[in-house]
Amino acid sequence: MNSLNLKSKVCAIIPFYNEKDFILKVVDDTLNFVDEIIAINDGSFDGSEKLIAKKNNVSVLTFVSNKGKGSALQFGFDEAVKRGYDIIVTLDGDAQHNPQFIPEFISSLNYFDIVTGNRLSDTSSMPFQRILSNRITSFLLSIKTKQKILDSQCGFRAYKKVVLENVRTFSAGYEAESEILIYSARNGFKIGFVNISTIYGNEKSKMNPIKAIIGFIKVLFI
């Protein structure tokens, strides 16, 4: 396992779709902890991308139409690897992930190849249906990967470059985040977790629960 050093280059990938109420703050807060942000505009039509398009150390890459979170993430991964980043952090554009945890994610990569946020250490503010679905999917993924998966659905993660050089996701939707864990475990990469707080406000989830369930079932059989 390659250790990291103070010269490691860090970027954040932030996929977003119609996040004009949140994206600017997310980007501003994240810039305190990374060298560059690669923001993937997944077909937004609310002008979200205009809020961050001219910011220093921010690259906005735009899909003309909405392709899904998995497609946006893989596009960002390819770009980050191409640009030579050693560490790639992913977080959502709806302000549910607190960028102040990024240093802890990076530090944990000295012991793991992938570090995922774990929101289930404190579920007091998490809707019950999310708790239930997450515990079920995390249990099933633990069996599938033969590693302990504490929070399979959290998009707040950090990856070593070597993982993304060897692992790709082929799913377009939210199930891509489970698919990445399966392929990573299959390739011998070690998965760790950082306990994070959950932030739920007035934002409306863009996840279609039926599509998400079908997608997850599909990746369980890859």
Structure commentary:
The chain is α/β, with parallel strands linked by helices. It has one domain: Spore Coat Polysaccharide Biosynthesis Protein SpsA, Chain A (Alpha-Beta Complex), CATH 3.90.550.10. The protein is built from seven helices and seven strands, in the order E-H-E-E-H-E-H-E-H-E-H-H-E-H. Strands 3-2-1-4-6-5-7 form a seven-stranded mixed β-sheet, sandwiched between helices. Strand 1, helix 1 (23-30) and strand 2 form a beta-alpha-beta unit. The chain is globular and about 45 Å long. The mean pLDDT is 92.
Topology, pairings included?
Blueprint lengths: L9 E7 L6 H8 L5 E7 L15 E6 L5 H14 L4 E4 L11 H7 L5 E5 L9 H18 L11 E4 H6 L9 H11 L4 E5 L13 H12 L2
Parallel strand pairs: 1-2, 1-4, 2-3, 5-7
Antiparallel strand pairs: 4-6, 5-6
Helix pairs in contact: 6-7
Q: What are the low-pLDDT stretches, counting only 5+ consecutive residues below 50?
A: none
| Proportion of helical residues | 25-40%
Instruction: Summarize model confidence as the mean pLDDT.
Output: 92
Major beta sheet, specifics?
7 strands, mixed
Strand content: 15-25%
Q: SSE string, helix = H, strand = E?
A: EHEEHEHEHEHHEH
Strand order of the largest sheet: 3-2-1-4-6-5-7
Estimated radius of gyration: 16 Å
Number of helices: 7
